[in-house]
Amino acid sequence: MKEKPIITAEEAIAMIKDGDTLMVSGFMGVGTPAGLMKALGESGRKDLTLICSDNGLFLGDESAATGVAPNVLKKQFKKYIASHIGLNKETQRQMLSGEAEVELVPQGTLAERIRSGGTGLGGFLTPTGVGTAVQEGKQVINVEGKDYLLELPLKSDYTLIRAAKADKAGNLTYSASARNFAPLMAMAGETVIVEADEIVEIGTLDPETVVTPGIFVHYIVQRGEA
Amino acid sequence: MFEYKEDKTKIAKRIARIFKDGDYVNLGIGLPTLVGNYVPEDVHIVLQSENGFLGLGEAPGEENFNPDIVNAGGVPCTIIEGACFFDSATSFGIIRGGHLDYTVLGVLEADQEGNLANYMIPGKMVPGMGGAMDLLTGAKKVIAATVHFDKKGNSKMVHSCSLPLTAKGEVDIIVTDLGMFEVKEGNFILKEYFAPATPEWIVENTRGNIVIDPECREFKF
């Protein structure tokens, strides 16, 4: 089986251009590809759109910032698509001052929009958000007497995810609740870069335990190398 | 006449007695999380954590701390025997697909039509809805957990929510520190009261249409 290139975090980030759309895995920092995000922070890339569950934790102490919060503090994003930004004061500030746009999406809708983007669907119908502010500007479709919102797919130019193990063919396993959005984002990225805690030889992962098939993965970065 | 004193423990204790052995439950962040502390020993429920697992356990000690296991608030936790992990789409498939028996969520305002507002105060607090909209929409039964009054002394139960809704018409049960209500056909139906409050005092001090159930009784803690 053909091996996927193993590159450094810096080489990975060098592919990204200003203005690109990124998907970044993680839930409050758990499952965030920290080495890639550190390299992104050092790269000075800007005007990016970030699709991420949340904006990590930043309540005023920069040294305690988690997840994508250090990148938010470096003002690398012009738009955030997230389900929760309440634990990042800097995102709140950027939103209120108009420096960045925030699109709040119910967490389940966010997951499914990403899955739709990665699985060739033109969107999906969900009852979540009917009769709320989330409905604004969306098509309401009635199916068998019940109202649903048409939600559209999301895709990324680059998906950055963390895995527990990657074999050299790009097959991935995850660690506990660090899995969260990563398997979905892996399907929805034009280019998918995985930061793995451990890189192993092809044939050493039990095929029954692989969560993300290597077909979705383009580059592998060793965690901790950044 | 009695003097009202906020009592979150009563709310958590009453809700914990609603569940049956084998129920699958999602507890929201804050007050709903307290419910987990009071589930009777002979009732085994499975807690779902919307960031991707079933079988949420207690807070970890030094020996079983795993940085990759956190609850929906991002706080380190443990899993129980028989737990399993899954991705966010599966997690919300469980939620939206109607597979959870109960979800317990906090309240800014809850109205007599079953509408709930709990995720933002325009111009003041815009944290985002997280998983709350999906949980309200998808769980078989929605329990709203709240202290009876806001800081100004007004009941958090209202005729009609003024804040942006988290979901429309989804609340089934409201448990406050004064009693338990069923939300049905445009009414709050008082099913139980918690002494020293009386049904009459609750009716007088609560906004919205309240009906005292003919079988309304005192719940003994």
From TrEMBL, chain A:
Gene3D superfamilies: Glutaconate Coenzyme A-transferase (3.40.1080.10). SMART domains: CoA_trans. GO terms for molecular function: acetate CoA-transferase activity; butyrate-acetoacetate CoA-transferase activity. Its EC number is 2.8.3.8, 2.8.3.9. It comes from the Bacteria. InterPro entries: 3-oxoacid_CoA-transf_A (IPR012792), CoA_trans_fam_I (IPR004165), NagB/RpiA_transferase-like (IPR037171). Keywords: Transferase. Pfam families: CoA_trans. The keyword Transferase applies. This is Acetate CoA/acetoacetate CoA-transferase alpha subunit.
From TrEMBL, chain B:
It comes from Spirochaeta isovalerica. GO terms for molecular function: acetate CoA-transferase activity; butyrate-acetoacetate CoA-transferase activity. NCBIfam families: pcaJ_scoB_fam. The keyword Magnesium does not apply. InterPro entries: 3-oxoacid_CoA-transf_B, CoA_trans_fam_I, CoA_transf_AS, NagB/RpiA_transferase-like. Keywords: Transferase. Its EC number is 2.8.3.8, 2.8.3.9. The keyword Nucleotide-binding does not apply. Gene3D superfamilies: Glutaconate Coenzyme A-transferase (3.40.1080.10). Belongs to the 3-oxoacid CoA-transferase subunit B family. This is Acetate CoA/acetoacetate CoA-transferase beta subunit. Pfam families: CoA_trans.
